[in-house]
């Protein structure tokens, strides 16, 4: 059975690339209201391709961009797989840094260059084409599938949670699959079994009602810039430990097995520093760079501004200062509790003469999945067959809120199977996706359906 699917994919590879090029030409930038009709055209393309693959599908209207829903549930007694992806893309700016226009896909050096090539059109499309291969060769799938492809991932997925909460029967499944992450490196596929969570906020401290002459008033009133700098400096000790009370309560520590797996991965710290343009690594004492990036909580300033920032001097005591902060969280930290703790900590550090406003943006929990589960075992087997090498098990330092949503609202864990590379310029000019990875990812997806069918639903 699988050999027929393999053969179909090989024979139709050029067609799949042509279709992907057509998909990538659509400027489905969800953040740009002037492109609303183009974003909808992206949804309609996905709908058309799912229907062509033999999946009964429809557009679900939302307050924003539509969700494409499709399902095939005729494999009695077999697991149901929820496939998630998104057809919207990041804005392409700055346009002058693209070698070729972002919505005029160009193939060079074995890659296809376009906005959305790897995030997430190219990766998501592998699952549509793999399902098509099964349906065209056998008229059925070895598992049940549900597709939920949204158009608001790049702007916060505001309407996805509502759709999932109101349609639990439609999305009920045994496991979810997302391809919106990366391989560990060239020729080294990976399964991501853990993600960090996040909390995000903005803090504004205010002093005098207006900027003051620093010669006349300096030293007589509290400077908001100085005060905020002192508050931010108090967030960490000299060992890189976050000083928010209760910050490390509930942190799920790495197992010895995980630390050994991380240590065995090919990672050169000198190359890492060179690629980033830094001359030293930093962070919480007692942990390696990979451990800090993937499995330890952090607290970072994302932006800070106060007073005059134009050319030349301007001698003032600024009226206010503001900072944007995010904390990356690990299981089992509570973002809501820690947001309150962060606010209280900063209020406790607030110097006399200043007031503070705290703005809570959003948060989600960190997640870690059992990398020895039957679903993980099935994914490892499929990927090894398709890529010719066994995948490594990694965590990611970033956050994918929909993964927590699937666990909390749908009650399923997620297989995070990335076909791209971290060097594919995601969210940047000259985004790209390897055509070989597109081929291998599609084959891995097709093999995954067979491997999952052998698990007792």
From TrEMBL:
UniProt key word Metal-binding: yes
TM helices/strands, residue ranges: none
Keywords on record: Hydrolase, Metal-binding, Protease
Residue stretches making up the Peptidase M20 dimerisation domain: 193-352
CDD domains membership: M20_dipept_like
Molecular-function GO terms, alphabetical: succinyl-diaminopimelate desuccinylase activity
UniProt-listed Pfam families: M20_dimer (PF07687), Peptidase_M20 (PF01546)
EC code: 3.5.1.18
InterPro entries for this protein: Cyt/Met_Dipeptidase, Peptidase_M20, Peptidase_M20_dimer
Top enzyme class: hydrolase
Keyword Cell division appears in the UniProt entry: no
Protein name (Swiss-Prot/TrEMBL): Succinyl-diaminopimelate desuccinylase
The species this protein was found in: Gimesia maris
Classification lineage: Bacteria, Pseudomonadati, Planctomycetota, Planctomycetia, Planctomycetales
